[in-house]
């Protein structure tokens, strides 16, 4: 359970400031400083309820992130060395950013930490905490490392799909899903940085309502999901729609960033890469459908069918949740391609 | 993971047994709070004596194990990709985890007595009875050995082995689907302790156990003890911890039954099975210390 203390606004404000500082940083050391500030602001947010599980998660997170920060600092210092080629000095920075993101093959800490922390911390970890390392990977001149990044992206998509199989706990499941989506973002960044940012924003738009819904009901496992939602029929349709949207099922919103990415990669004459990404996404979709089907089948319960008003309200709200961001996407796509 | 630590005097001024026992065989750390001292040994000094074998022989044995371990790994991946875990639960669902009706199951459980490490004179055994049920019996002896170190004695325990997957990696049980622990036992009227050991990462939490008393009737009739997981309280090295927390049901390492009720004499406990039960009407999260502590209090 997340307990908000008077110190929470302090840490949240430094968390926000650190990200803004990193985005506007003009020096490597300033970027590293903002990364450290980001880490040090997030640790107390994880440990806010002082439970053992969250403390364990916070320490594991600190160890992983400290390694990433150290690698980035090493790379930053190497850049200032005139005897080392910039192409070599950028490698520790890339590795550090990959570690901080939880991108394969540096992903081992991510599901472990997600399984230990509260939903509020999970939400920040999967969205806000990705901004800085993702910006490093997207905006660095990495033309000579692009094939390597594409391979890691493809690997992340596959690992995200395989790792999420047979998961009964929802937090590690969403962690593996996040790894999979990161793979898509990295591969898209090789084609266009703005496309990667659109994908990231779309991911946030989809994951945010899911985590808020699960946080509101304090649900951590699939058993709790089905038993809690059995009596709250109005949430079942929303949850099922959101999970299918996250899995990338058309015509829900989650499908469109994937469509955009596949189209861009096909136009760049890439075949193997989108195939690998789609394979990972299919595995992701499989376990999301596993979550959604029992809820959808439960909606056919005769007692639920009698409540016509709640069906209408629930169905409209779910459709809005799943479909409305398409309008934003379509507007942007029209402006981009014109 | 071990944290660097220094042996300190306890706050109360009593010198820790750990300092005294540095030169002795065992580490008898009498620690009221598990967060005070680091743990250097996973078994807290109670490791069984292993004969040192030559490196080459050891290597040959490991290579021999490679085939079966790879087979186990293959089965794990097949199970993972099949994705056929039960996702829904109905009221009254149960699962028998250990049924003590054959020698293999009985032998897979470990019997521990204080006499094993020269800390007492209790005797215990766990055998298969004539009616194909497990019998945990022996004699509890609370007489303290006269070595000047041990202050209390009288302890017998049976525990399951830690669940392992391929290549001897720890694989904790995941019992999140269930709400109660079921035990079908026939006791002798004595009070036993059901112990659930946790699989934890840091050395300070290696000895975390959740425990609850098992009150037996002593009559000829069998009893089914249905203990909610929410009722188990946190202890470490036999000491109930001040800061209580809910049990993590996806990190269960082993289950055991302990007798340490400080009464001299024989004991006899028949165990039919140990299982799990799901009660949809059980809504209690944790039974102890659910009050909110002010944020300025550090504990």
TrEMBL record, chain A:
Residues 25-278 form the NADH:quinone oxidoreductase/Mrp antiporter transmembrane domain. Pfam families: Proton_antipo_M (PF00361). It is a multi-pass membrane protein. One of its GO terms (cellular component) is mitochondrial inner membrane. Keywords: Electron transport, Membrane, Mitochondrion, Mitochondrion inner membrane, NAD, Respiratory chain, Translocase, Transmembrane, Transmembrane helix, Transport, Ubiquinone. GO terms for biological process: mitochondrial electron transport, NADH to ubiquinone. Coiled coil: none annotated. It catalyses: a ubiquinone + NADH + 5 H(+)(in) = a ubiquinol + NAD(+) + 4 H(+)(out). InterPro entries: Complex_I_Subunit_2, NADH_UbQ_OxRdtase_chain2, ND/Mrp_TM. The chain crosses the membrane at residues 7-23, 61-84, 90-110, 117-139, 145-166, 173-191, 197-216, 237-256, 268-289, 310-334. Its EC number is 7.1.1.2. The keyword Ribosomal protein does not apply. Its main location: mitochondrion. It is found in: Mitochondrion inner membrane. GO terms for molecular function: NADH dehydrogenase (ubiquinone) activity. The keyword NAD applies. Core subunit of the mitochondrial membrane respiratory chain NADH dehydrogenase (Complex I) which catalyzes electron transfer from NADH through the respiratory chain, using ubiquinone as an electron acceptor. Essential for the catalytic activity and assembly of complex I. Belongs to the complex I subunit 2 family. This is NADH-ubiquinone oxidoreductase chain 2. The lineage of its organism: Eukaryota, Metazoa, Spiralia, Lophotrochozoa, Annelida.
TrEMBL record, chain B:
Residues 98-271 form the NADH:ubiquinone oxidoreductase intermediate-associated protein domain. Its main location: mitochondrion. Keywords: Chaperone, Mitochondrion. The keyword Mitochondrion applies. It comes from the Eukaryota. GO terms for cellular component: mitochondrion. Pfam families: CIA30. GO terms for biological process: mitochondrial electron transport, NADH to ubiquinone; mitochondrial respiratory chain complex I assembly. One of its GO terms (molecular function) is unfolded protein binding. It is found in: Mitochondrion. Transmembrane segments: none annotated. Belongs to the CIA30 family. This is NADH:ubiquinone oxidoreductase intermediate-associated protein 30 domain-containing protein.
């Amino acid at each position: 359970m997340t307990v908000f203390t008077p110190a929470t606004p302090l840490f949240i404000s430094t968390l926000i400031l650190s990200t803004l500082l990193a985005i506007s940083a003009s020096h490597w050391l300033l970027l590293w400083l903002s990364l450290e500030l980001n880490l040090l602001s997030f640790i107390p947010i994880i440990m806010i309820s002082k439970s053992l599980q969250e403390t364990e998660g916070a320490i594991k997170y600190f160890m992983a992130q400290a390694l990433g920060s150290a690698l980035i600092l090493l790379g930053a210092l190497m850049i200032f060395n005139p005897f080392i080629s910039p192409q070599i000095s950028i490698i520790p920075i890339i590795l550090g950013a990959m570690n901080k993101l939880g991108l394969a093959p540096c992903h081992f800490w991510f599901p472990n930490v997600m399984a230990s922390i509260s939903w509020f911390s999970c939400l920040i970890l999967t969205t806000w905490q990705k901004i800085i390392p993702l910006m490093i990977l997207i905006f660095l001149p990495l033309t000579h490392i692009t094939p390597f990044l594409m391979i890691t992206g493809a690997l992340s998509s596959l690992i995200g799909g395989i790792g999420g199989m047979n998961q009964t706990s929802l937090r590690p499941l969403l962690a593996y899903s996040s790894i999979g989506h990161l793979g898509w973002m990295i591969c898209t960044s090789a084609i266009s940085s703005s496309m990667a940012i659109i994908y990231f924003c779309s991911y946030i738009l989809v994951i945010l309502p899911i985590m808020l819904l699960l946080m509101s009901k304090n649900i951590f496992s699939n058993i709790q999901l089905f038993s809690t939602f059995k009596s709250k029929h109005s949430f079942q349709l929303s949850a099922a729609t959101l999970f299918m949207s996250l899995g990338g099922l058309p015509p829900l919103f989650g499908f469109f960033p994937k469509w955009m990415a596949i189209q861009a990669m096909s136009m760049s004459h890439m075949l193997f890469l989108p195939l690998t990404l789609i394979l990972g996404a299919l595995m992701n979709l499989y376990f999301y459908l596993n979550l959604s089907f029992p809820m959808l089948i439960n909606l056919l319960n005769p007692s639920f069918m009698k409540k016509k008003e709640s069906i209408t309200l629930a169905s409209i709200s779910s459709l809005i949740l799943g479909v409305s961001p398409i309008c934003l996407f379509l507007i942007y796509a029209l402006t981009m391609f014109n | 993971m071990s944290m660097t630590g220094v042996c300190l005097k306890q706050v109360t001024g009593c010198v820790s047994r750990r300092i005294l026992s540095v030169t002795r065989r065992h580490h008898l750390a009498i620690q009221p709070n598990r967060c005070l001292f680091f743990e250097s040994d996973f078994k807290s000094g109670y490791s069984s004596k292993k004969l040192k074998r030559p490196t080459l022989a050891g290597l040959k044995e490991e290579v021999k194990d490679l085939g079966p371990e790879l087979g186990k790994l293959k089965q794990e991946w097949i199970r993972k990709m099949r994705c056929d875990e039960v996702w829904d639960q109905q009221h009254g669902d149960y699962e028998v985890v250990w049924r003590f009706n054959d020698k293999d199951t009985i032998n897979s459980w470990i019997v521990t007595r204080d006499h094993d490490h020269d800390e007492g004179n209790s005797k215990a055994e766990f055998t298969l009875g004539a009616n194909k049920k497990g019998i945990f019996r022996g004699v509890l002896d609370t007489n303290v050995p006269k070595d000047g170190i041990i202050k209390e004695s009288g302890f017998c325990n049976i525990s399951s082995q830690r669940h392992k997957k391929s290549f001897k990696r720890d694989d904790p049980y995941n019992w999140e689907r269930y709400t109660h622990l079921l035990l079908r036992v026939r006791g002798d009227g004595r009070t036993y302790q059901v112990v659930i050991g946790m699989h934890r990462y840091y050395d300070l939490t290696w000895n975390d156990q959740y425990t609850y008393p098992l009150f037996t009737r002593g009559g000829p009739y069998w009893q089914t003890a249905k203990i909610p997981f929410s009722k188990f309280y946190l202890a470490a090295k036999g000491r109930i911890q001040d800061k209580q927390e809910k049990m993590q049901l996806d990190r269960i390492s082993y289950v055991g039954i302990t007798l340490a009720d400080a009464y001299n004499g024989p004991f006899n406990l028949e165990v039919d099975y140990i299982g799990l039960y799901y009660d949809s009407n059980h809504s209690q999260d944790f039974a102890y210390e659910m009050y909110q502590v002010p944020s300025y209090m550090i504990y």
